[in-house]
Structure formats: C-alpha cells, structure tokens
Amino acid sequence: MRTVNIPPIIRQVGIRLGAITLVKAIGLIGRIILTRMVGSEGIGLFQMAYSYYGFVFMLITGGVPTALALYTAEQNALGWVWFKRLSVVFILVGASICLISIGYSQHISAWLGNPDLSFFIRPLSLALFVVPLLSLLRGYLQGLECYTVIAVSEIIEQAVRVVLMLSIAWLLMPQGMVFAAGISQIGTALGGIAAFVSLLLFTLHTKKEHVVSYSPPPRSRSRITDSIWFIRCSFMIAMTRLLVPFSDMLDAIIIPSRLQTAGYDSSQATAMYGLLTGMAILIVYMPTIVTSAISHTITMKLVIAWKERHIGQFNARSREALEIVWIWGIASCIFLWFYKDELSQVFFKTPEAAELIQWLFIIPLVVGLREITTSILWSQGNNKISLIGTIIGIFIAALCHYSFIPLKGLHIIGAVIGILLMEFIITTINIMGLKKVVSGMNLGRLLLHTLIFLVVLVPTASVTRSISSLIDWGIYSTLPGMFLYILLVCTYMLIRYRQQHT
C-alpha cells in the first residue's frame, strides 16, 4: 500500500489553518449571537472598546513576542532564558496599565466619545494583565515551531471567552443591553488565563526536550548585545504592529464623530460604525485566515533560510507563498461579490451589511498580499519598509475619513474608501520593497493562469449560488452552494501545489 508523504510545510500550514479556522469560527459564532442579542449599536460599542483594548495590548507587547520567536528560531537553548526575563517586564507593565485603565475608565470613555464604553473597558482591562504574557509564551513556542500546542491554546482561549461572554450577556440582559454586553467582556480575561495555564503546563513539562537536548551554542554575542538586538528588533516590529490597532482606535474616534457631523445622532452613528466594523469588515476579513496560517508557519523557515544565506530557497518559498495568496485572494473576492446578500442575511439576519461587503470585496486579496509581504520583509530583517507604508496608509485613511464622511452621498462609504486606500498603500509599498523576489516570478504565466482561473471560477460561483433555488432552507438555502464553492477552490489549490512538488 502506497503511503502519501505530506511535506512538512503543508502539514504545519494545515495545522495552523485548521486551528485558525476553528478559532475564527468560534469567534464568528459568538459575534453573530452577541450581535443579535445587543443589536448594531451594542456591537458598535463592543468594537470601539476593543479598539482601545487592541491598541493598549500592542502597546504592552510591541514586537517582543515576534522578536522572541525569531531569536528562539536561531538559538533554541537561550529562548527560554529570555522568555523568563521578559515575563517579569510584562507582568509589571501589564499590571500597571490594567489598574490605570480600570481607575480611569470613565475618562477613557469620554475621550473615545461615548460614556457607556466604561462598562466595556473595565472588564477588558483585566485581560491586559494575562493576555500579553500568553502572547509572549506563544512567541517562544513559535520559535520552536510548536504549532500544534499553540493551536490548542488558541482554541481553549476562544472557546472559554465566547462561552463565558454569551452566558454572562444572557444572564445580565434584564439589567440593560449596555451593562450586559460590557460586563460579558470579562470572558476575554478568563479565556486568556485558561489558555496561559494550559500552555505553561505543557511548556514546563516538555522544557527539557527543547532546552536540555540543545547544548547552548558558543556565545557569539554578549548579554548586552542580545538586549540591544531585542530592543531594536522589537521596536521596529512594534512600530509596524502598533500602528494597526492605533488605526482601529483612530477609526473608532473619527468615524462616529464625523457621522454625527454629517447629521446623525450618537446612537445612529454608533450603529453605523458597528455595521461597518462589527459586521461587514468581520465578513470580508474572514478569508485572510488562510494567509495568516501561511504567514505564521513560513516566517520561521524564511528566517532560517535567510540566516544561512540560502537565497535561492528563500526566494522560491517566498514566490510560492505569494502565488498561493494571490490565487486564494481572487477566489475569495469572487465569493464575496456573488454571496454578499446571502452572507449578510445568514450571519446577521439583515440585508444592511450587503452593500458594504460589496464595496469591500477586494479586501481578501489586498490584505493577503500585505500580510505575506510583511512576513517576507521581516524575515530579511527589513522592518522599515512596512513601517513606512503603514504610517503613510494610516495617515491617508484618517484624512479620507475626516474629509469624505461628512460629504453628502458618501457618509459611511467615505469610511470604506479610507480603509481600502490604507490597505492598497501598505501593500504597494511592501511589494516595491521586494523587487528582487517579485522580479524572479514568471508574471506572464501567473497572469495567464489567473485569467483561466477567473473564466472558470465566475461561472462556478454563479452555478453554486443557483443551488439555493433547489433547496428550501429559508435564508440558509445558499449554505450548500457556499461550501461547494470553497471545496472546489481548496481542491484546485491542493492539486496545483502537489503538482509543483512532484
């Protein structure tokens, strides 16, 4: 009997993709149920509070977990040592910011533009003590390529968070929507605690396997040199990553404010913001879980290839990742375009998000290329290009939001324009920084395959969508067609990848 040998990279991407898919599915189900419980205004408050939480979380962690992953990939034996040192710093900083956020929650809420946000910020602040530590531990294990245990911890975290969030919201709903939805966010902290404990127990149990089995290599750098490297690497990564949650928080301040300038009251502006960020953006960013899985698993391999000066291998893997992301992005864009109405109805029982999904349909392709190009640049030790692109993109987006949203006929579409411009700018600048990698790609062949792919895929989407007319499941009649379309695309990509490696 012939055995099928699965390449390690496929196995690791599969594990990562399976975990991310399950985590996102749990999160999506939780978000959908919560949205139906609290409405668009409630989910708008949820998004605004999470924009603050995400920004502060990145302020605490910066690029340290990623820097630790890169360091551990190069020097396995010393990764645990640096994890313990950095944990002390994270505990002190996390505890301080947690207490400050709780004590000044009303001032923060007023600054964000809605006093009701204090009900969300106080419970979320508790997570700022434990979740950064969890992120640091995952960074250490990523450097050791322990993707399975990282995946399990993510599933535990998300499952505990969602179950507790929905349970608390349901129990407290008689006391008011805002109070119930806000207090339910304590599930974020408890989910982080559950994941951290399970991950720490695994790490301590297997530490000898990863540390003792490696004899510490002769030190080519002093402790001071390593510290300087951590500071420099973390700072550059942090500046890039910190800008994304900063942009989200900026959006949470600017978009509702400018909608009120356009004539909407506070409740309507919050609901429209929730419709955009809590519904439409949630859907259009879902296909990027595949890109995230590829980026997460390929980064460490690219780091090692670049360090050992295997430039040919580095370029080949980078180009292969870019092609996969390109194909998946196009397939996802077509899916969103054809199924926009069904997605809005199935997930949120409202047609209101369909138009925004249509305007944002290109997001999976652009964001997918942005994520993978950022990973390639970081693997080369080049953090400046992504940083510059992100700064320019966020500035243009904020300018568009401020200028376009109040204009008659635009309003929420002005926010969409800003989001799209930001992603396009960052991706374009990243690609310009990878000229040597991109120039080696056979663009003519890729474009030809893309054209053929489109010619086949557009009718396929139309046919799978028509399956709903044969099934009487109400708003869920299109689900079989959706799954069939996704299955056909995934099958094509697997066949194509295996042909390239035979």
Automatic annotation (TrEMBL):
InterPro entries: PG_synth_SpoVB, Poly_Biosynth_Transport, Polysacc_synth. The keyword rRNA-binding does not apply. The chain crosses the membrane at residues 21-38, 50-73, 85-105, 117-137, 178-202, 229-255, 275-300, 321-339, 359-378, 385-404, 410-434, 446-467, 473-495. Keywords: Cell membrane, Membrane, Transmembrane, Transmembrane helix. It is found in: Cell membrane. GO terms for cellular component: plasma membrane. Its main location: membrane. The keyword Disulfide bond does not apply. It is a multi-pass membrane protein. Coiled coil: none annotated. Signal peptide: none annotated. PANTHER family: LIPID II FLIPPASE MURJ, PST FAMILY PREDICTED COLANIC ACID TRANSPORTER. This is Stage V sporulation protein B.
